[in-house]
Amino acid sequence: MIHVQIASQLTAQGVSGVRWVLVEPVDPPLAAEQAPAAALADPAAAVDPAPDADRVGSATAGALRLGALKLLVVALGLAAALWTAHVQVGPPGAPSLAPAQPGAPATPAHSASPRPGLHPVTPPTVPPAAAPQTGDTPAPAASAPLPRLTAAL
Amino acid sequence: MTTMQPPAPLPWHDEADVLGVRVRAYFFDPAEVDARSDFASRQLPILRHGTARLLAPEGQRQSYRAGGLLAQPDAVLAHGDGLLCLAYKGSDGRLMDPAQWRAQWRVDVMLQCIASAMAVAGQCQQPTAALWRGTNVLCQFDPGVAALECLATHIGAARHYWRELQSVSPAQLAAFCEPRLRALPGLAAGTTPTALA
User: Which of helix, strand or coil describes residue B75?
Assistant: First the structure.
């Protein structure tokens, strides 16, 4: 408790007639927060600068972590952009990106040649069922498997 | 055999009990007093020249703390074995009529001065007198037990009321405690309400 003395009388030489009262000290968490202010008011009272040093160190570590997080986000975004360009356009230096030859049809470069990953699916060659068979080749049996309509990519 | 002589009383012009606080008033001619060069003679005209000295340069306000109460009084002076906590910048410039000063009295200013003196006394651990200097009047406040306990025990509640995490100012504490003091039995009788500016 803090002892507070209020003078009740003012004289020509000083004060007299003290009235006193007790004031509750500040809560410990608040006192810790007010340590810098107390150090400013009374430098002699600042005997342990360790809390301030810890606070500064933690702030620096936090800033480093934030910077690393920003760098990671930028790197992930760049990688995603490169992967998307690789899938849709092709790798850098691919023939599809080469300048068109004179006299070549004015078609987009990306459609001039096959690209990896986008191979056109060639329709399967279906044997003409209605075509007249020549020779002694027997007609396919009714139980013969149907031609496949799908192709493996 | 020598006997201790009681200190000579200062020539106060009037006294009154206001909300549990004994108020002593000294009226002066501001034209004559404001022309003095010495700070203590100018702000404390009831004291003789050279009896009080400023703890900090004139105009430089320092912070004083007692628990959760943080004050920046206009001036703190050393006077004998005690301190004087003086407020003089909050005056609105009005002259107080010596016959009607009770009706013009502002309780909030009085409680602010006492709270500032409490902060100074708590930090410096010296008996401190609360003083207020108006345009033409110097007042000294002698708070009674009820007023002093009300201010001292409501610092934490005032801090929560004003949502101050660290400390409460004398103005906030005074505003918080004034209605509580008025509600105390026996204190509101004979006091005048706060004059409107």
Answer: strand
**Residues 127 through 166 of chain B touching chain A, CB cutoff 8 Å:** 127-131, 140, 142-143, 145, 148-149, 151-152, 155-156, 165-166
ipTM above 0.90, yes or no: no
The model's pTM is 0.62
Residue B84, SS3?
strand
- Assign A140 a pLDDT band (cuts: 50, 70, 90): low
The DSSP code for A50 is H
User: What are the residues facing B24 on neighbouring strands?
Assistant: B15, B140
Distance of CA B85 to the CA centre of its chain: 7
Task: Check CB contact under 8 Å for B127 and A6.
Answer: yes
**79-108 in B: which are within 8 Å (CB) of A?**
79-84
Q: Say if residues A16 and A9 touch (Cβ distance below 8 Å).
A: yes
Query: What string of DSSP letters covers B25-70?
Result: EEE--HHHHTT-SSHHHHH-TTSPTTSEEESS-TT----EEETTEE
Least Cα distance to B11 among B27, B30, B34, B32 occurs for: B27
A8-30 pLDDT per residue, tens: 999 998 999 999 999 988 865 55
Burial class of residue A81 (count of CB atoms within 10 Å of its CB; 0-12, 13-18, 19+): exposed
B195 CB within 8 Å of a chain A CB? no
**For residue B86, what is the enclosing H or E element?**
strand B82-87
Residue A80 has pLDDT above 50, yes or no: yes
